Amino acid sequence: MLSTRFTQHSLVTEAHKSIQPYLSEQSISIDATMGNGHDTLFLARRSLKVYAFDIQENAINATRTRLKKNSCSANVSLLLTGHETMSQHINSEEKADAILFNLGYLPHADTSIITQEKTTLTALDDALKLLSAKGILSIIAYPGHCGGQAELQAIIHWYQRLDSSHFAVSIIRSTHEKPDSPRLFTIQNSQ
Questions:
Q1: Whole-angstrom distance, CA of residue 117 vs CA of residue 174
Q2: What is the DSSP track for 71-114?
Q3: Are the beta carbons of 124 and 161 closer than 8 angstroms?
Q4: Sheet of strand 183-189, all strands in order from the earlier edge strand to the far edge
């Protein structure tokens, strides 16, 4: 099943609103692209355990600082590795109730270091295997930067191949959308 809706809120706010009902004090969650740690902190406040991935030391440091400042670091594993390696770091018996991808590049850092289409697709496939029976996957894609349009198209092709009897896909777009505006996709396990 595919649905589309529009919002006046930021897509990060919409992603958080979409996944919050899926989280509990017993949840395992994954921040596939930790960036500056905003999503990691959101998940840490609502989960038993959080795995957070990024390839940049700056992201690890910013996230660690944010978590410590908010007294939320005890239940978080910060992993300096790409999201495409998540299945190597998370036991397949641990199923995640929420998995967030906020693609693109690390704000206020080297904008040539971006998420890559190939590794993102590998990570999305792994994420589906780690998703709990009642879980949700959230993806924010940014087509407005170099490489972003190709990554967005790859994500669209990826979700179009999903079995609609097992996964419900929603697309959330800005009411003020332009061709290079970000897009939010949520994939809910409906098994």
A1: 23
A2: T--TTEEEEEB-GGGHHHHS-TTS-EEEEEEE-SB-TTS-TT-B
A3: no
A4: 2-7, 167-174, 183-189, 131-141, 96-102, 28-31, 49-54, 76-80
pLDDT digits (tens, 9 = 90+) for 27-69: 999 999 998 999 999 999 999 999 999 998 999 999 999 999 9
Which residue has 């879980």 as its token pair? Answer: 135
Q: How many CA within 13 A on the CB side of residue 42? A: 23
Q: Which helix (H) or strand (E) covers residue 31, if one does?
A: strand 28-31
Given this model, what pLDDT does residue 92 score?
Answer: 83
What are the backbone angles phi and psi of residue 37, rounded to the nearest 5°? 90, 5
Q: How many Å apart are CA 186 and CA 55, to the nearest integer?
A: 24
As given in the structure block, the two tokens for residue 106 are 């690390």
- Whether 149 and 113 have beta carbons less than 8 Å apart is answered as no
Contact at 8 Å (CB) between 151 and 103?
yes
Q: Which residues of the chain have pLDDT under 50?
A: none
Per-residue model confidence (pLDDT) at position 71: 95
177: DSSP letter: -
Task: Give the residue among 179, 182, 176 at the shortest CA–CA distance from 12.
Answer: 182
pTM check: above 0.85: yes
Element (H, E) at 42: helix 38-44
